[in-house]
């Protein structure tokens, strides 16, 4: 579904992605962790073409992102993206936020999109908030709307870029629960997060990145108990003890 | 001084002042309509990817902002006939007002668009929207709302700037006031009558502005 082969990316002289090779298969849940600046956000932003890369090959759902003729718009319809800062449209209600892309990009009728949108907002526990504007919702509620917004396009892949980092602690769980249920339904997911509990619970694989490179890839059990790299163990000792 | 105003003469000239008032209203409305159209186009050019189009928008805005309106007005008034383009004075005046105000409108709208966070654009891109869909559905509705108040400010400036059209013999409010001064040698009466009419125009604009921004206020409790 997602296949990185020897991908490199530079910001000026900064080597932000260093020789990334990684394959994510359909239905897999991959958690990416690492210090800030390690390139983990850049990694998933490459997958829907928000960031270009300079060298290597990246194929997502059959779309070759390195080729100049890649139809990015069609790819993006199949790839949902959830941001750290939610990025809901402030001038639209929760329901409008969720239905706007299905109507204008997928070409659904308003009625069809609303049926789909209502069901998804119900599913993320916001059935009573459909007519609210983003500023009337808490952070956790906004992020759940954002997840519903991505799901309403019926994507094949969901990408999460630190979805709980901007949330107050008491709201983190309501968002993680939605993500856990999504993972259990078989969605292909890549999640950049420091929520190691989430990784333990649903990840098929955990990846640790440092200075633009993938340092460690392992199933959660091995990752948390028997990481091979010193840098991974050092990182884990810091994030697991608070 | 105001106590000694000759109100009888002012009333006698009321029809002329009224004509001037209507004329200024229409010249300003036409000028501002043109300014909005020009401003939107110039702003669109200044944020699109083609470099030479961006540069032409910048050149327009800079040329207008760097030179006085009076010079621009005379440039059109004396320059156009030399190119063989003969237009009525009133039309030249409207074109000058539009060209002048359009540059400021472009900057006002641009500042609104640039204030939209990158995250909004990325969210729209990630959902597969085209450039035009992003602009129409996400960027412009958010960008235009905070520009309403500065745009009204620009309209108020334009109304007052339209007084310069009296210099190319367009009959409008200032010109009408000058007639009292010239016919009756009563410059103060003329100026006061004119000023009162401009004040009325100003309050009319404020009324429209109030209704407009009420309609466009952010949804939900303010």
From TrEMBL, chain A:
One of its GO terms (cellular component) is plasma membrane. Its main location: membrane. Keywords: Amino-acid transport, ATP-binding, Cell membrane, Membrane, Nucleotide-binding, Transport. Residues 2-236 form the ABC transporter domain. SUPFAM superfamilies: P-loop containing nucleoside triphosphate hydrolases. Gene3D superfamilies: P-loop containing nucleotide triphosphate hydrolases. It is found in: Cell membrane. Pfam families: ABC_tran. GO terms for molecular function: ABC-type amino acid transporter activity; ATP binding; ATP hydrolysis activity. InterPro entries: AAA+_ATPase, ABC_ATPase_HisP-typ, ABC_transporter-like_ATP-bd, ABC_transporter-like_CS, MetN_ABC_transporter-like, P-loop_NTPase. PROSITE patterns: ABC_TRANSPORTER_1, ABC_TRANSPORTER_2. Belongs to the ABC transporter superfamily. This is Polar amino acid ABC transporter ATP-binding protein. It comes from Alsobacter soli.
From TrEMBL, chain B:
SUPFAM superfamilies: MetI-like. GO terms for cellular component: ATP-binding cassette (ABC) transporter complex. The chain crosses the membrane at residues 20-47, 185-205. The keyword Cell membrane applies. It is found in: Cell inner membrane; Cell membrane. Residues 21-209 form the ABC transmembrane type-1 domain. It is a multi-pass membrane protein. GO terms for biological process: amino acid transport. Its main location: membrane. Keywords: Amino-acid transport, Cell membrane, Membrane, Transmembrane, Transmembrane helix, Transport. It comes from the Bacteria. InterPro entries: AA_ABC_transptr_permease_3TM, ArtM/GltK/GlnP/TcyL/YhdX-like, MetI-like, MetI-like_sf. Signal peptide: none annotated. It holds the Pfam family BPD_transp_1. GO terms for molecular function: transmembrane transporter activity. PANTHER family: GLUTAMINE TRANSPORT SYSTEM PERMEASE PROTEIN GLNP, MEMBRANE COMPONENT OF AMINO ACID ABC TRANSPORTER. Part of the binding-protein-dependent transport system for glutamine; probably responsible for the translocation of the substrate across the membrane. NCBIfam families: HEQRo_perm_3TM (TIGR01726). Belongs to the binding-protein-dependent transport system permease family. HisMQ subfamily. This is Amino acid ABC transporter permease. The lineage of its organism: Bacteria, Pseudomonadati, Pseudomonadota, Alphaproteobacteria, Hyphomicrobiales.
